[in-house]
Amino acid sequence: MDKESVLLQLVFLLRPVRYCREMLDELLSLIAEAGIEPKVFALLITRIHQLNAMGAQAVRLKEFESIGDGLFSMHLTGKDFNLRILYSFLPSREPVLLLAFHERAGKNKTDYSAHTDAAKARLTKLKGEYHG
């Protein structure tokens, strides 16, 4: 799919949850024109539904994990992709998607250290804008 079509689909799929514009741009660059879009969209729908239904308890599910400092990771994994979306919660306990990246294959444990500072900065900014 071309980037514009992927962007429109992502905006539609992400309606039930808050997210950073930067995360949307990252996710777009990871999946557009890669031939994985339908698989990622299907998983994203499932993960967002799980996150909205379970909130912080989503970490009980295999594809979610707490990575510390109030940050969590959502896994979107398939045959040709291994994506992570870092997220947290606003004061209202509403989830917010902060950062997306591609995890290299073959690692036993994901190293989030290169991504946590940016995710925390985005969360701080969103909390500053929060009025709910």
Brief summary:
The protein is α+β, with helices and mostly antiparallel strands and 132 residues long. Helix content is 43%, strand content 24%.
Structural account:
- It is a single chain.
- The protein is of the alpha+beta class and 132 residues long.
- The protein has 4 helices and 5 strands, in the order H-E-H-H-E-E-E-E-H.
- The protein has a 5-stranded mixed sheet, with helices on both faces.
- Strand 2 and strand 3 form a beta hairpin.
- Helix 1 packs across helix 2 (21-31) and helix 1 (3-13) packs parallel to helix 3.
Provide key terms for this protein.
single chain; 132 residues; alpha+beta; five-stranded mixed beta sheet
How are the SSEs placed, and which strands pair?
Layout lengths: L2 H11 L4 E2 L1 H11 L5 H18 L9 E5 L2 E8 L2 E9 L5 E8 L10 H17 L3
Parallel strand pairs: 1-5
Antiparallel strand pairs: 2-3, 3-4, 4-5
Helix pairs in contact: 1-2, 1-3
Low-pLDDT runs: none
Distance from N terminus to C terminus (CA atoms, Å) equals: 36 Å
Looking at the structure, what is the overall shape?
Answer: globular
Q: What is the alpha-carbon Rg in Å? A: 14 Å
Average pLDDT taken over every residue: 93
Structural category is alpha+beta
Strand elements, count:
5
Secondary structure: helix percent? 40-55%
Largest β-sheet summary: 5 strands, mixed
The percent range for strand residues is 15-25%
If strands are numbered along the chain, what order do they take across the biggest sheet?
1-5-4-3-2
Number of helices: 4
Q: What is the H-and-E element order?
A: HEHHEEEEH
